[in-house]
Hints:
Radius of gyration: 27 Å
Number of strands: 11
Shape: elongated
Structural class: alpha+beta
Strand content: 15-25%
Distance between the termini: 89 Å
Strand order of the largest sheet: 4-9-11-10-6-7-5-8
Amino acid sequence: MDELTTGQVAHSAGLSEKAVRMYADRGLLDARRGAADGRRLFGVDQVERARWVRLLRGVDLTLAEVEDVLDGSDRVARFDEIWTERRSGAAQAARAGEYVRSALAGPPRLDVAVLTRDVPERLVLRTGRRARLAELASVLPEATDALFDVLRATSSTLAGSPFVEYHERATEGFAARISVCAPVADVLRPPAGLVLATDPAHAERYVELDQETAGDQTFLVLVHDYLSSGSGVAEVVGDNREVYLPAWGAGELGPVMEVAVPVARQVP
């Protein structure tokens, strides 16, 4: 038998006829229409491909991912890429779930080292933006470049690591107000759209992140929440911040970013 019907492919591959038809319509299975009755007819090689589709769908790969694997030049390598990302996402989801459970049960718990420091009063050059969560990756560099352009134009000296203040929580659907700030050593006249302001003296509780953890958006959200509502040892007196250290984006080991929250100074 050179060709098989939809029912025969379904039976041999362990799929429903509806699934076989859908995969054929999507192009995952190759079929032709019979001249006499218009039925789909499949080559015998499509049974093995249908089994592969079933196996890949069984581990929750999307139809697009299934197509990538089966039609790629190296099926195993492409599957490994997808599966590694999937396992990483599962680990992130598990960590987030444990955090949420701890928050429901009492003070939230997160396995991070929270450090404390005093920040003196300082001048900061500041520019405001609005951004959704997915837009931050492009908005933050653009705003930082705008600050550094002013510093270069005025021959001003950067007096600390740039940081971002989050006045609201950015989500996929909500554009939050943020301020991108650069500490400066001297008074300067900012152009329109930028402000020279005073960052009052305060204490900060902060968590250091390396490049890998800084790029984990799920974990980053947990750290922000933990510092602002879960550390439970000091009164929060300002908006959450992300401080970008000189090692950011340089491929170096160690801290590249800090998540920080201003807190009330402790009375001796």
